[in-house]
Amino acid sequence: MRWWIGTSASLILTTIVGCATSTSVPPSPPTVPDAQLVVGEGMTLGRWIKVEKRERRLIVFDDTEPIRSYPIVLGPEPEGAKLHEGDFRTPEGEYSIVAKYPHPRWSRFLLIDYPTPVNTEMHAWTKEAGLLPGNGRGVPGPGGKVGIHGTSDEARNRRGENWTLGCISLFNRDVEELYSMVDVGTRVVIEKE
C-alpha cells in the first residue's frame, strides 16, 4: 500500500513538473529605460520638462538649470509604468510634446507622444505573457492621449488626490504658465515611481 501511494505521488509530481516545463514562457519583459540626462561637451538641452512621479512635481529646465517647479497629481495607480489603456498609470520614460491646445474642461492640454515604440513593445510582451485584463472584446490596447493638463476641480489637486486616467494634472494657473513656456517638440522626461 505504501509503495502505491509513493508511486502515485511520484507520477502526479512528474506530471505537474512535466507540464510546467513544457509551457512556453515569454522572454523577459522589455524595460522602459531610465531617463538619463546626458550632455556632451558643447551640447545644450534647451528647454525641457522633468516629471518626478515620486515627489509629485513637474520641473521646467533650461539646459541643466531648473527654472520653474509645479505640484502635480497623477492617476490613482501611480506606481509603475503604464502598460495598457485603463490601468490608471502615468507612463515612464522619455517623450515629447506633440500638440498643445486649450481644453474646455482642463484649461490647457499638452499632448505627449505616448505610446512610443518602447511602450508598444512593453504592451506586446504583457499581452503575450497573458497579463492584460480581458474586457469582453479582447484585451485593452496600450492607450493614448496622455498629456499634461489642468483640472476641473482644483480642490482635488490641493488635496493631492491622484484622479486622472494616467495624465499629469497641474493647477490651472500653473498649466497656463507652463503652456506659455514650452513649445511643441519639448522633451518630457517622466521618472519612475
Strand order, sheet with most strands: 3-2-1-8-4-5-6-7
Taking the alpha carbons of the first and last residues, their distance comes to 57 Å
Fourth-level CATH superfamily: L,D-transpeptidase catalytic domain-like
Q: Which percent band covers the strand fraction? A: 15-25%
Number of structurally distinct domains: 1
How many DSSP helices? 4
Q: Give me the oligomer status.
A: single chain
CATH fold descriptor: L,D-transpeptidase catalytic domain-like
Question: Average pLDDT, to the nearest integer?
Answer: 80
Q: Say how many strands there are.
A: 8
**What is Rg?**
22 Å
Unreliable stretches covering 5 or more consecutive residues: 1-25
Q: Give the class from helix and strand content and strand pairing.
A: alpha+beta
The H/E string reads HEEEEEHEHEHE
Helix content: 10-25%
Largest sheet: 8 strands, mixed
Classified by CATH, the class is: Mainly Beta
Query: Outline, from the CA principal axes?
Result: globular
